C-alpha cells in the first residue's frame, strides 16, 4: 500500500480554514535558498530542481535500487519559508516581492539518509542539467510549536488569513519566534483557478 501524505498526515497538511496549534517534528528536506520575486523565471527553475531530486528518490526501485526501509509513497508538496530582506525591513520599505527572502523545499521520507540524498543529487544532476542543482541541500528542519491555517484563494490574498492568525495569537498571548512563516502549496497554480487554490500557512510560535 502506498503512503499518501494527504491521507496519513492530515493534521500537518490538511488543516481547517481556522487557526489551530500544532507541534511539527523534525523532517528531512531537499532545499534551495533564494531571494526575489517568485513570479520570476528563476523561482520556477529552482522549484524544478527540487522536484527532479525528489522524483529521483521516488523512482529508485524502477532503476533497480531499493534503499533500506524504502516504501511506496506520494511525493510531498512544495513548501517555503518566507521573510523579507534585512535591508527592506531596516529601510521601512513598503512590501515588494523583490525584497522577499526564501527557502523552498520538498520533504523526503524518513528512510532517506544524508548519504542517499547526496548520491541521488549527484546522479540526477548528471542526467538533468539545471544550474540550480548545485544549490540544492539536504537538511533536517524542526518547526516545533506552530499556529497554522488553511488559506483558500490567491497568494496575493494571504494577508487576510494572516490577519486571522495574528488575532488568534494575540488573544492567546502566543508570541512568534520569528518574522518568517511557512507556506505549503497544496494546489498546482497551472491547473487550479486562483480563487480555489489551497495553501497551508504556518507561524512559528513560543
UniProtKB/TrEMBL annotation:
Residue stretches making up the GyrI-like small molecule binding domain: 21-199
Listed SUPFAM superfamilies: Probable bacterial effector-binding domain
Matching Pfam families: GyrI-like
Protein name from the UniProt record: GyrI-like small molecule binding domain-containing protein
Highest classification ranks of the organism: Bacteria, Bacillati, Bacillota, Bacilli, Lactobacillales
Amino acid at each position: 500500500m502506498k503512503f499518501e501524505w494527504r491521507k496519513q498526515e492530515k493534521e500537518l497538511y490538511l488543516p481547517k480554514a481556522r487557526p489551530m496549534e500544532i507541534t511539527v517534528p523534525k523532517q528531512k528536506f531537499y532545499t534551495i535558498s533564494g531571494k526575489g520575486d517568485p513570479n520570476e523565471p528563476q523561482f520556477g527553475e529552482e522549484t524544478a530542481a527540487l522536484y527532479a531530486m525528489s522524483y529521483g528518490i521516488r523512482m529508485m526501485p524502477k532503476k533497480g535500487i531499493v534503499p533500506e526501509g524504502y516504501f511506496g509513497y506520494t511525493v510531498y508538496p512544495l513548501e517555503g519559508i518566507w521573510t523579507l530582506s534585512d535591508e527592506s525591513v531596516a529601510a521601512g520599505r513598503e512590501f515588494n516581492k523583490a525584497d522577499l527572502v526564501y527557502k523552498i523545499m520538498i520533504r523526503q521520507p524518513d528512510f532517506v539518509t544524508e548519504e542517499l540524498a547526496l548520491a541521488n543529487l549527484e546522479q540526477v544532476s548528471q542526467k538533468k542539467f539545471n544550474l540550480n542543482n548545485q544549490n540544492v541541500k539536504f537538511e533536517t528542519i524542526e518547526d516545533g510549536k506552530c499556529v497554522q491555517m488553511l488559506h483558500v484563494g490567491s497568494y496575493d490574498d494571504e494577508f487576510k488569513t494572516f490577519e486571522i492568525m495574528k488575532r488568534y495569537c494575540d488573544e492567546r498571548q502566543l508570541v512568534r519566534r520569528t518574522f518568517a512563516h511557512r507556506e505549503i502549496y497544496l494546489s498546482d497554480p497551472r491547473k487550479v483557478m486562483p480563487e480555489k487554490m489551497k495553501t497551508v500557512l504556518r507561524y512559528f510560535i513560543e
